[in-house]
Amino acid sequence: MRVHKLSFAALAVVAGLSLTACQNGADGAAQSGPSSAAGTPSVSPPSAAPSGSSASATDAGTGSAGAGSGGKGTAARTAPSENGKGDKCRTDELTITAADRTIDGDPEGTVAVTLKNRGARDCAVSGFAGVDLKTGAGTLSAQRTAEKANPGTLKKGDSVAFGITYPFNTSGGSGVRITGLVVTPPGETKSVTLAWPGAATLPVTDGSGSPVKVGPIGNFGQGG
Fold this sequence. Notes:
Layout: H1 2-68, H2 74-77, E1 94-100, E2 108-117, E3 123-124, E4 130-135, E5 138-141, E6 143-144, E7 153-154, E8 159-167, E9 176-184, E10 192-194, E11 201-202, E12 213-214
Parallel strand pairs: 6-12
Antiparallel strand pairs: 1-2, 2-8, 3-7, 4-5, 4-9, 8-12, 9-10, 9-11
């Protein structure tokens, strides 16, 4: 009988320990539950903070791009289309240069204007650029030739050119001095002013002489 009493006592101790463990586990679960629930609000504010920081960074980047290119909103205007092509070339994406391309014996002088795509995307360029000559007598706008303008895509890093023809000053007089060349890419309002690489003067005419003419983008050649 004593042996049975000890066994019952041992069983009672084991049962008591198991019950205590279960209660402790339940208490631990109850304590961890509120801790997890309390932690949820503390996680939400940090997740909102990066979103606000990202917006600020974007705004700052846009502002920087606008200031660097002479105006706000440039970054938005120069964003590529969905397929990366098709959007027209912007002035800020182009390096524009001019060089004398007159050949000895030509009846007129020729200047070639080159547009190089230095942007991060391909862009569309076609038609006629705006061309104005700054002279001592005022601004002279070039007239378009009758050549057909063909649409095209200017890949990043590539170049395309158009020609300007002008009459030589063979009058023997001082003529009209050319002081600069203003080029506006097709469809753009922002211009670039370059040094004039051609002859220093134009003849003084009554309007009956040969005008300064500009050819279409990508169709550069002598005369026209």
